[in-house]
C-alpha cells in the first residue's frame, strides 16, 4: 500500500534503537525524510547512515536528551516545518510503590509526559497552519492495563493520555491527527532489561524469564520493532486521517479487554 507520505518530513525521537528505530525505518521506507535523535552519538550516526543507505531519504541527526529543556530546544530547531512527529523516550525504572519520592515522579513526568507535550506544543501549530500533520506518541500497554511494578510509567503515561484525548480533538479541524501507540512487550533492549529484573527477582535465567513471559501472551512471542514501526507509519499515513485521539494497542493479545 502506498502510504501517500513520500517527501514529507518527520521528527522521530529516541530512534537509534528499539521501537523508535522501527518507526524511523518504516517512515523512511514510505519515503519520509527524517530528523533522528538519541543521546549516544555513535549509535545514532550509525543508525542514520544505515537508513540513508537503505532507503535513500535525507536524515538529520540531533544527539541530545529529549527529556531536558535544552534537548527539546535543539530538537525543535532542527525539526522546524516537520509534517510528522513521533514522540518517544526511555521508560522509567520498575520498583515498589513505596520506592519512589517526588524527584522520581518529576523525572518520569519529564520523560514520558512533559517532553511529548513540549514537542507537540512547539511543532503542531505549524502543522495546523499548513493544514496537515500527524503525531504519534509511543506510550505503553500500561495505559490500558497498568503494570504493578511500573508505577512511575503508569502515572506519567496516564497524564499524557489525558492530555492527548483533549488536544487531539482541538487540532483535528486543522487536518492534524494525534494518536498514541501502546506497545506490549517487544523485542528491544528495554524488554531485555525488564527480563533481567525478573530473572534477578525470581532467581531464574533471563532466557527462562523471557519464555515465561512469552507463554503469557496469546501470540506466544514478543513483538518486533518492524511490526511496531509499520503500524506507526500507517498512523502517519494519508489513510489514517479519520483516526483521532486513539490508543492503539500492539500487545499480541496480552491485555484481556474489549476497549
Ligand atoms: P529501548 O530499546 O531502550 O530504546 C531506547 C532508544 O531510545 C535508544 O535509541 C536510546 O538511545 C533512546 N533514548 C532513550 N532515552 C533517551 C532520551 N532521554 N533522549 C533521547 N533518546 C533516548 O526502548 P524501547 O523498548 O524501544 O521502548 C521505547 C518506549 O516504549 C519506552 O518508553 C518504553 O518504556 C516503552 N515501552 C516499551 C516496551 C517494550 O517491550 N519494548 C513495552 C512497553 C512500553 P540512547 O540511549 O543513546 O539515548
From TrEMBL:
Query: Could you tell me which InterPro entries the record lists for this protein?
Result: NAD(P)-bd_dom_sf, SDR, SDR_fam
Protein name (database record) = Short-chain dehydrogenase
Q: Which family does it belong to?
A: Belongs to the short-chain dehydrogenases/reductases (SDR) family.
Pfam families reported in the protein's UniProt record: adh_short_C2 (PF13561)
Q: What PANTHER family does the annotation carry?
A: 3-OXOACYL-(ACYL-CARRIER-PROTEIN) REDUCTASE (PTHR42879), NADPH-DEPENDENT REDUCTASE BACG (PTHR42879:SF6)
Say which domain of life the source belongs to: Bacteria
